[in-house]
From TrEMBL:
<feature type="transmembrane region" description="Helical">
    <location>
        <begin position="224"/>
        <end position="243"/>
    </location>
</feature>
<dbReference type="Pfam" id="PF13432">
    <property type="entry name" value="TPR_16"/>
</dbReference>
<dbReference type="InterPro" id="IPR013618">
    <property type="entry name" value="TMTC_DUF1736"/>
</dbReference>
<feature type="domain" description="DUF1736">
    <location>
        <begin position="293"/>
        <end position="365"/>
    </location>
</feature>
<feature type="transmembrane region" description="Helical">
    <location>
        <begin position="112"/>
        <end position="132"/>
    </location>
</feature>
<keyword id="KW-0256">Endoplasmic reticulum</keyword>
<feature type="repeat" description="TPR">
    <location>
        <begin position="583"/>
        <end position="616"/>
    </location>
</feature>
<dbReference type="GO" id="GO:0005783">
    <property type="term" value="C:endoplasmic reticulum"/>
</dbReference>
<keyword id="KW-0808">Transferase</keyword>
<keyword id="KW-0802">TPR repeat</keyword>
<dbReference type="InterPro" id="IPR011990">
    <property type="entry name" value="TPR-like_helical_dom_sf"/>
</dbReference>
<keyword id="KW-0472">Membrane</keyword>
<feature type="transmembrane region" description="Helical">
    <location>
        <begin position="317"/>
        <end position="334"/>
    </location>
</feature>
<feature type="transmembrane region" description="Helical">
    <location>
        <begin position="354"/>
        <end position="373"/>
    </location>
</feature>
<keyword id="KW-0812">Transmembrane</keyword>
<comment type="similarity">
    <text>Belongs to the TMTC family.</text>
</comment>
<feature type="transmembrane region" description="Helical">
    <location>
        <begin position="201"/>
        <end position="218"/>
    </location>
</feature>
Length: 740
């Protein structure tokens, strides 16, 4: 049994050491941590990646998944984020198909189960990293570190930094990437089941490991880094390379270097060639698929990467690394988004925050020195592999090779946290070895696990809905404009415009170039008839971002309300220039033309809206009403029938077409549509009022009286209905007198 395991004897009880029970405990604990999120909503990025992603729907060909990014945009588009994760999107699509729609519970349950499965796999992974790789004569791998691997797996399963990946549905990309990452690593280990024969390996398992690495990359980009970890593991564990000894021989020009075992190991060189070739092939294919080059991010996404000074960039990147390290060490302050001023830029070495990266590098250098210089080969292996697991999967998010679109992202720490848990477990073992207070260390370990579980449960609850998630970020990142924007948007969606305005204003104050906050604030002010300020905000938004089509359209709506028709038309045209397929803008342009009595132009604009979006009910309705009002009943009827074929359950279309049919004296068909509309929306006073007019005109006076009365009960202020009801009553009274 490994020495580290003996040191943990008093911390981990022997009753849970059998592999089955160890994995059962880890799996159960991992599910308990995040079970609260099972019935959560779709939150934050879930809307774009799932609800608004056409790749999940059956009408989108499966082949399109291989040409689209994670968010459903074409990879060749200049606006694409280039996040190529087709296998993750495929699992979303299967979720959608099996559950018959967007039911968030099924998506959340899959995420929770994936984390449970990954945590169970971690028991095997940690047993290799901590205890080494050794097989029986029958090819069965031995777990030489049952206690330490169990503790490390429990620390991983309960780490609160994983909440974003598990409770946020889009985190499935990280979960699937991690799953195949671990399977690739364990597959690579299986290549050495006959390692008692010097230099032998199974090429099949090496190739399968590379294939699983490619699958991991198709789930999340950082999956490719498993090839680097496999290479480090092969060199250090299989090849038993002593880096310090090799460096000393190089420096002293020792001739014995020529006979260095690792360098003469043909099997190792062959495996390294396979790994390098596989990695190069994946990167080449990935680059070819990406098409137009790397994605374009803005300064607010990653301000350090836009700094002119290389020194400023280097200091801030290292500060970001220290923040990530702190999240692993103390995952209490968690936030769904760390951009937009959440982490102010360090602009000089006089900033006290430079002490954080200094402390990080002191720790890393200390660990690296121990990993290289220790005389204990077991210690060297664990520290090196721990650092490898910590650093290698994090490299794609490090800004070293390309600019990333975030400052800090908790989701990218899912795999690196395994390295942290490995190092922490080693630390507990070292403490236990050098102190007699074993119970105190056991209490600390249990305390950490309990606190982590509690924090996971609390954080999972915060991820259940957007209101709690966004508000939880206010105390963590009060300078983050996006946090205030999202709180404001959530309030606006719930109808609390007064509170929403306050948060939108704060977002604009924190980031004076935040055009989306300006656009939303302008919209609310427009609805409250505060048109002058709305116009100022929207004008500023399009000045900052001239291709912001939504702001141009909203500016046009405000200008139309201010009777500045020429300016409104120009704004609408500009919006359409920047977004050609913009049905809502064509609809609003049609309303402008209708106000100007340019009926043909209005009809053409609304027709364009329905071509781009066949289910655009408002555009269809306006066409029917305009044709009806201008006396084109036959054309109005044709448009109404066309609309109802496309949107058969829209009660407003039934109502509009029923009015046209009534005027055309097609009373029976008109009555059927009115009754159908009323069944769908029984409390619409106008529906009952117009049906009463139909009956009045048709001669069914008792039915007319009934629906006039229902209409007036629903809306007693309707003057037209009152007048018609009065006429009907007088007519009924006259008829009664004639009968007498």
């Amino acid at each position: 049994m490994a020495e580290l395991d003996a040191d943990l004897d008093r911390i981990i009880p022997s009753s849970v050491l059998p592999p089955f029970w160890a994995k059962l405990v880890v799996g159960f604990v991992s599910l308990v941590c995040f079970a609260r999120s099972y019935d959560g909503d779709f939150v934050f990025d879930d809307s774009e990646a799932i609800i608004n992603n056409k790749d999940l729907r059956a009408e989108t060909p499966l082949g399109d998944l291989w040409h689209h990014d994670f968010w459903g945009s074409r990879l060749s588009s200049n606006t694409s984020h280039k996040s190529y994760r087709p296998l993750t999107v495929l699992t979303f699509r299967i979720n959608y198909y099996l559950c018959g729609g967007f039911h968030p519970m099924s998506f959340h349950v899959i995420n929770i189960l994936l984390h449970g499965g990954i945590s169970v796999l971690m028991v095997d992974v940690f047993s290799v990293l901590l205890g080494g790789l050794q097989y029986t004569s029958r090819g069965r791998r031995l777990n030489l570190a049952p206690r330490s691997s169990l503790l490390a797996a429990l620390l991983f399963a309960t780490h609160p930094v994983h909440t974003e990946c598990v409770a946020g549905v889009v985190g499935r990309a990280d979960l699937l990437g991690a799953l195949f990452f671990l399977l690739s690593f364990l597959g690579y280990c299986k290549a050495f089941r006959e390692s008692n024969k010097e230099g032998t390996h199974s090429t099949f398992w090496v190739l399968l490991s590379i294939l699983l690495g490619a699958v991991a990359m198709l789930c999340k980009e950082q999956g490719i880094t498993v090839l680097g970890l496999n290479a480090v593991f092969d060199i250090l564990v299989i090849g038993k390379l002593n880096v310090l000894e090799m460096v000393q021989k190089v420096l002293h020009k020792d001739k014995s270097l020529e006979n260095f075992g690792v360098l003469r190991n043909g099997g190792l060189l062959f495996r390294m060639t396979l790994l390098a070739s596989g990695g190069a092939g994946m990167l080449y294919v990935r680059w070819k698929i990406m098409g137009t080059g790397p994605p374009a991010f803005t300064e607010v996404d990653n301000p350090a990467s836009f700094a002119d000074s290389m020194l400023v960039r280097a200091i801030n990147y290292n500060y970001y690394y220290s923040l990530n390290a702190w999240l692993l060490l103390c995952p209490w302050w968690l936030c769904f988004d760390w951009s937009m001023g959440c982490v102010p830029l360090i602009k000089s070495v006089g900033d006290w925050r430079v002490t954080a990266p200094a402390a990080l590098w002191l720790c890393l250098i200390g660990l690296i020195c121990q990993a290289l210089c220790s005389e204990d080969s077991h210690k060297r292996r664990i520290l090196t592999l721990g650092l490898g697991f910590l650093i290698i999967p994090f490299l794609p998010a490090s800004n070293l090779f390309f600019r990333v679109g975030f400052v800090v992202a908790e989701r990218v720490l899912y795999l690196p946290s395994a390295g942290y848990c490995l190092l922490l477990t080693f630390g507990f073992g070292a403490l236990s070895k050098h102190t007699k207070k074993k119970k105190l260390i056991a209490g600390v370990v249990l305390g950490i696990l309990f606190i982590n579980i509690l924090r996971c449960m609390i954080r999972s609850g915060e991820w259940r809905n957007e209101e709690e998630l966004f508000r939880s970020a206010l105390s963590v990142c009060p300078l983050n404009a996006k946090v205030h924007y999202n709180v404001g948007k959530n309030l606006a969606d719930k109808g609390n415009q007064t509170a929403a305005i306050r948060y939108y204003r704060e977002a604009v104050r924190l980031n004076p170039k935040y055009v989306h906050a300006m656009n939303n604030l302008g919209n609310i002010l427009k609805e409250r008839n505060e048109l002058q300020e709305a116009e100022e905000l929207l004008s500023l938004a399009v000045q900052i971002q001239p291709d912001f089509a939504a702001a141009w359209m909203n500016l046009g709506i405000v200008q139309n309300s201010l009777k500045r028709f020429e300016a409104a038309e120009q704004s609408y045209r500009t919006a359409i220039k920047h977004r050609r397929k913009y049905p809502d803008c064509y609809y609003n342009l049609g309303r402008l033309y209708a106000d100007l009595n340019r009926h043909v132009d209005a009809l053409n604009a609304w027709r364009n809206a329905t071509v781009l979006k066949p289910e655009h009910s408002l555009a269809w309705n306006n066409m029917i009403i305009l044709l009806d009002n201008t006396g084109n009943l036959a054309q109005a009827e044709a448009v109404g029938r066309e609309a109802l074929e496309l949107i058969p359950n829209d009660h407003s279309l039934m109502f509009s077409l029923a009015n046209v049919l009534g005027k055309s004296q097609k009373y029976k068909e008109s009555e059927a549509l009115f009754l159908k509309a009323i069944k769908a929306h029984p409390n619409a006073a106008s529906y009952h009022g117009n049906l009463a007019v139909l009956y009045h005109r048709w001669g069914h006076l008792s039915l007319a009286k009934k629906h006039y009365e229902i209409s007036l009960q629903l809306d007693p202020t309707a003057s037209g209905t009152k007048e018609n009801y009065g006429l009907l009553r007088r007519k009924l009274e006259q008829m009664q007198k004639k009968d007498v």
